[in-house]
Write a structure and sequence with these properties.
434 Repressor (Amino-terminal Domain); 2 domains; two-stranded antiparallel ribbon; 6% strand; elongated
């Protein structure tokens, strides 16, 4: 899981507004606008700064649910591909594996294998 830093900064009114609010809250240890821009570039921020943001939101009387700023793992792993150049993966692991002498899988094992193949992005699973 990864925080959507751009949305988090926007929640506080943007880079300049956030830097100013942090400066008002803790003048000696406030993050500069340059530091906040680096958070955006890196796509992450130090834990200490995240704690300061939660304290800032609380001081401002604004609810801050960090779950609302988290990218879901599926979004991060989803890649878009031009369908003209796409290779379609056709897996026959279960069909061919079951035909091997002495090999058999329970229903649960087949489902577990199918879920793993799905996570790998296999397009067609022949069982």
């Amino acid at each position: 899981m990864q925080l959507d830093i751009d949305r988090l900064i926007a929640y506080f009114g943007g880079v300049n507004a956030l830097a100013e609010a942090l400066k008002q809250q803790d003048p000696e240890h406030a993050a500069s606008t340059a530091a906040i821009y680096k958070w955006r570039t890196r796509g992450s921020l130090p834990l200490a700064q995240l704690q300061k943001l939660t304290a800032l939101a609380q001081a401002q009387g604004r609810p801050l649910d960090l779950n609302a700023f988290i990218h879901q793992q599926a979004e991060l792993e989803k890649n878009t591909m031009n369908t003209n150049n796409r290779v379609i993966i056709f897996d026959t692991t279960m069909r061919d594996g079951e035909q091997s002498p002495g090999a058999s899988m329970t229903k649960e094992e087949k489902l577990r294998l199918a879920r793993q193949l799905e996570k790998l992005g296999v397009d067609v699973i022949e069982a």
